[in-house]
Amino acid sequence: MTANGGGPGCGEAWEHARRQAQAASPGQREAARDHVAQLRHDGGTYRSIAAAAALSPAAVYGLASGRRRAQPATAAVVLTVTTPALPQARLDAGGTRLRLRALHVMGHGSARIARAVGVHPVTIRKLVRGDAPTVSQQLRDAIADLYDTWWDKRAPARTRFERAAATAARKRAITGNWCAAAALDDDRLDTPGYRPRYGWKPATGTGVAPDIQPPARHQRGRKGA
Question: Are strands 90-92 and 134-136 parallel, antiparallel or unpaired?
Fold first, then answer.
């Protein structure tokens, strides 16, 4: 008979009980998970949160996903991380969303825009809907460059597929009451919280937008906003 009760498996059971006693309480875990969610909403990533907390990214992800039973010290240190302490690798997506919606007014749908900047259409759709609160600087700049080229140009209508796509994009803009580029304040476009004063109005532009092919390096493996 051993000090921990003896018998096969007793040592393992004692060790499991010890780890359970050391684990963070459900309240601590929930608070830490909510805090990680808020930090990510503010533009943080698992990697940047982990760096600020001096933890591994796997530990932060495990805490946020609930797949790993967090220690009290892990939950506590995560709760001390603030948004200003995070490396700002991502930007507010408000201006990007307004640019994309203005392009829809001109008939440029998410798939056409995605091809031009070299990302997956789902990424553009998330930004257009407002489901992605932040965007990488690389993608923000790519969309801004495209917007500067297409803002006053209609989508092409050379085939029935292009005509159908342009019609669908315009209908979506009408339904969403999205503002055309001419009514956006360029000086405030990238200011978080900026909202245009006007809603949808028809826009025909000054011509047809050229086709744009992204650099080859953007066409592979770039699926996230």
Answer: antiparallel
- Please, which residues bridge with residue 154 across strands? 208
Q: Which amino acid is at 165?
A: A
Q: pLDDT, tens digit, for every residue of 98-118?
A: 999 999 999 999 999 999 999
- Rounded to two decimals, what is the model's pTM? 0.60
**CA Rg value for the chain:** 24
Say which CATH topology domain 19-85 has: 434 Repressor (Amino-terminal Domain) (1.10.260)
Cα separation, 101 vs 195, in Å, equals 12
d(CA 115, CA 121): 8
* pLDDT tens column, 76-92: 889 999 888 776 667 89
Domain boundaries, the chain: 19-85, 91-218
DSSP, collapsed to helix, strand or coil, labels residue 152 as coil
